[in-house]
Amino acid sequence: MALSHRGREALRAVGLEDEVLSTAIPMRARMIHPLSGNQYSIPYGTKRDDCIYSVNRRALNELLLTKAEESPNISIHFESRLLQADLETNTLVFSDGATGKKTVQTEFVFGCDGAHSTVRRQMMRWGRLNYQQEYIQHGYRELTMPPMEPNFIHIWPHHEFMMITLPNHDKSFTLTLLMPCSLFESVRNEDSLLTLFQAHFPDSINKIGASL
Ligand SMILES: Cc1cc2nc3c(=O)[nH]c(=O)nc-3n(C[C@H](O)[C@H](O)[C@H](O)COP(=O)(O)OP(=O)(O)OC[C@H]3O[C@@H](n4cnc5c(N)ncnc54)[C@H](O)[C@@H]3O)c2cc1C
After folding, report:
1. What is the position in ligand 1's atom list of the atom closest to the CA of 4?
2. What SS3 string covers 101-142?
3. Arithmetic mean of pLDDT, 79-97
């Protein structure tokens, strides 16, 4: 995943910025791949240190968990799903094993449970809280791409959608294709996939390979 100023600030606050950056791959510019095929780069800044970084999401998650485990005041409970929260008394009910439940009473509750947050849903039961969720038309697929010019984030821009690749340590790239779901649904077989890439990302075909 791409790591820039905001993520670095958060890592610095928990003393992990240097450790994460020691294995991160600097991306000094965006390499733009227009439909014409004449690729060009747009630097992130004027100095050599002006860059964003590519980090391995799994390795980052593992490091954060390991460091949390080392803190004496943190206990981690896997496979425990928050089911209910009474935010007047800070009483939380979690799933425990396949059928069990456990109740926890706490001084503070920080809800960090993602886009479909149960904490937020429970907050809405206790206060006059409005919340609106809208889905965009786009979905994404990840693919692996063989080595290209390193130290770049490669971008194939389009008005409605785009493809980006971030470098990995084994010199391969992880490619993310972001597109309206309707276009993904139009890809029915190998031929229609190739037609899509010929129309929108022609210079990527040689790099990825034409057959599945
Ligand atoms: C394709 C894609 C590419 C992205 N690329 C980047 C990138 O390059 N750089 C970047 O900075 N960001 C990127 N993002 C965004 C980034 O992944 C999210 O912003 C980030 O993961 C959000 O973190 P979060 O902790 O809020 O939620 P999440 O990562 O969703 O974590 C929520 C956690 O809460 C747990 N949980 C949920 N419900 C419960 C419950 N009831 N009880 C207990 N636990 C629960 C979940 O299991 C999960 O572990 C990308 C996102 C996508 C989809």
Report:
1. 11
2. EEEEECCCCCCCCCCCCHHHHHHHHHCCCCCCCCCCCEEEEE
3. 93
